[in-house]
Amino acid sequence: MTFKCGVMDLHNYYWSFDEVQDKQQKKMKGAFDKIINLMNDKQVTMREACYIYSIKKLSTTTKLRGIIRK
Questions:
Q1: DSSP readout, 33-48?
Q2: What span, in angstroms and rounded, lies between the C-alpha atoms of 35 and 28?
Q3: CB count in 10 Å sphere of residue 7
Protein backbone atom coordinates (compact mmCIF):
# COMPACT_ATOMS: atom_id res chain seq x y z
CA MET A 1 0.00 0.00 0.00
CA THR A 2 3.06 2.27 -0.11
CA PHE A 3 2.17 3.63 -3.56
CA LYS A 4 -1.30 4.59 -2.42
CA CYS A 5 0.12 6.33 0.65
CA GLY A 6 2.51 8.28 -1.55
CA VAL A 7 -0.31 9.39 -3.87
CA MET A 8 -2.40 10.42 -0.90
CA ASP A 9 0.46 12.53 0.50
CA LEU A 10 1.44 14.17 -2.80
CA HIS A 11 -2.04 15.01 -4.03
CA ASN A 12 -3.82 15.46 -0.73
CA TYR A 13 -6.23 12.71 -1.78
CA TYR A 14 -7.57 10.17 0.68
CA TRP A 15 -9.30 6.82 0.42
CA SER A 16 -11.61 5.59 3.12
CA PHE A 17 -10.64 2.50 5.09
CA ASP A 18 -13.35 0.49 3.31
CA GLU A 19 -12.09 1.56 -0.14
CA VAL A 20 -8.55 0.49 0.71
CA GLN A 21 -9.77 -2.84 2.08
CA ASP A 22 -11.90 -3.44 -1.02
CA LYS A 23 -9.05 -2.65 -3.43
CA GLN A 24 -6.64 -4.82 -1.47
CA GLN A 25 -9.15 -7.70 -1.36
CA LYS A 26 -9.59 -7.57 -5.16
CA LYS A 27 -5.83 -7.58 -5.75
CA MET A 28 -5.28 -10.46 -3.33
CA LYS A 29 -8.10 -12.52 -4.88
CA GLY A 30 -6.77 -11.86 -8.38
CA ALA A 31 -3.27 -12.97 -7.40
CA PHE A 32 -4.62 -16.07 -5.65
CA ASP A 33 -6.71 -16.99 -8.70
CA LYS A 34 -3.66 -16.68 -10.98
CA ILE A 35 -1.66 -19.01 -8.74
CA ILE A 36 -4.48 -21.57 -8.53
CA ASN A 37 -4.94 -21.54 -12.31
CA LEU A 38 -1.20 -21.96 -12.87
CA MET A 39 -1.11 -24.77 -10.29
CA ASN A 40 -3.90 -26.63 -12.07
CA ASP A 41 -2.55 -26.01 -15.59
CA LYS A 42 0.99 -27.16 -14.78
CA GLN A 43 -0.03 -29.86 -12.27
CA VAL A 44 2.41 -28.56 -9.64
CA THR A 45 2.17 -27.68 -5.96
CA MET A 46 1.06 -24.24 -4.87
CA ARG A 47 4.62 -23.41 -3.80
CA GLU A 48 5.96 -24.38 -7.22
CA ALA A 49 3.22 -22.35 -8.91
CA CYS A 50 4.25 -19.33 -6.83
CA TYR A 51 7.87 -19.79 -7.89
CA ILE A 52 6.89 -20.12 -11.56
CA TYR A 53 4.66 -17.05 -11.39
CA SER A 54 7.31 -14.98 -9.61
CA ILE A 55 10.09 -15.91 -11.99
CA LYS A 56 7.90 -15.19 -15.03
CA LYS A 57 6.96 -11.81 -13.59
CA LEU A 58 10.61 -10.94 -12.88
CA SER A 59 11.62 -12.07 -16.35
CA THR A 60 8.94 -9.96 -18.03
CA THR A 61 9.78 -6.90 -15.95
CA THR A 62 13.51 -7.10 -16.60
CA LYS A 63 12.90 -7.51 -20.34
CA LEU A 64 10.50 -4.56 -20.44
CA ARG A 65 12.99 -2.36 -18.59
CA GLY A 66 15.76 -3.33 -20.98
CA ILE A 67 17.87 -5.03 -18.33
CA ILE A 68 17.82 -8.31 -20.31
CA ARG A 69 17.79 -8.11 -24.09
CA LYS A 70 16.31 -11.52 -25.02
A1: HHHHHHHHHHT--HHH
A2: 11
A3: 13
For residue 60, pLDDT over 70 is answered with: yes
The 10s digit of each residue's pLDDT in 20-43 is: 899 999 999 999 999 999 999 999
Buried b (16+ CB within 10 A) or exposed e, 21-59: eeeeeeeeeeeeeebeebbeeeeeeeeebbebbeeeeee
Find which of 1-5, 7-11, 13-17 is predicted with most confidence, using mean pLDDT.
13-17
Where in the chain are the domains? Answer: 2-64
CA distance 5 to 11: 10
The whole-number pLDDT of residue 65 equals 86
pLDDT at 66 over 90: no
